[in-house]
Amino acid sequence: MSVYKCKYFKIQELVCNHVMQSYSEEQVWSFLDEDLKKTLDIIREILGVPLTINQPKMKVFQRGLRCHLCDLVQKNKTPYITTHIQGKAVDILLPTDCGMTAEDARHKIQESADKLPCNIRFEHLQKGVPISWIHVDVRDNERDEKVYWFNV
Fold first, then answer.
1. Max CA separation in the chain (angstroms)
2. Element holding 107 (H helix, E strand)
3. What's the pTM value of the predicted model, to 2 decimals?
4. In Å, how far from its chain's centre is CA 91?
5. 152 vs 104: CA distance, rounded Å
6. Count of beta carbons in the 10 Å neighbourhood of residue 126
7. pLDDT over 80 at 105, yes or no
8. Higher local confidence (pLDDT), 77 or 87
9. Which residue of 51, 68, 86, 102 is 20 to 30 Å from 39, comparing CA positions?
10. Which of 11, 89, 13 is nearest to 51 (CA)?
11. In this predicted structure, what is the pLDDT of residue 61?
């Protein structure tokens, strides 16, 4: 079976630098969930604007797949098994000049949910305020909703 590779994203945009430095590009593509990769391409088409996940040139590496060496993982004192570590989640930034907030984008994606290959989850509120990025993951949700919103 061939491994799906995103049309709109380079692998460096989707995984931490530790993983990129330790494995071949072909191996790294296989670490990401197939549904997540397909979902990212469809979200890009739904929103119609370039999307940013990791920014290697700016040394920002922890918005996609994270490994045990990443700072966000190491600073936790309790077991930390997230959708990012499982290769099932990314945090997306929109272009500042696209005329959409992350909240607008989440609603636009939900309106086109029938195009998605699987159920997705959105982080929504953090301390009662909508988060300014789009966390999307493909972990199953207990309600089996096509688009499940949860708060952190």
1. 44
2. helix 102-111
3. 0.92
4. 4
5. 19
6. 12
7. yes
8. 87
9. 68
10. 13
11. 72
The yes-or-no verdict on residue 72 having pLDDT over 80 is no
Q: Using an 8 Å Cβ cutoff, are 47 and 104 in contact?
A: no
What sign does the CA torsion over 33, 9, 29, 91 have? Answer: negative
| Residues across the chain | 152
Segment (H or E) for 69: none
Query: Which residue ranges form the domains of the chain, and what is each CATH number?
Result: 11-150 (3.30.1380)
Residue 4 token pair: 């799906």
For 99, the enclosing helix (H) or strand (E) is none
Q: Which residue reads 């590496």 in tokens?
A: 61
Q: Which amino acid is at 26?
A: E
- Percent of the chain at pLDDT > 70 equals 97
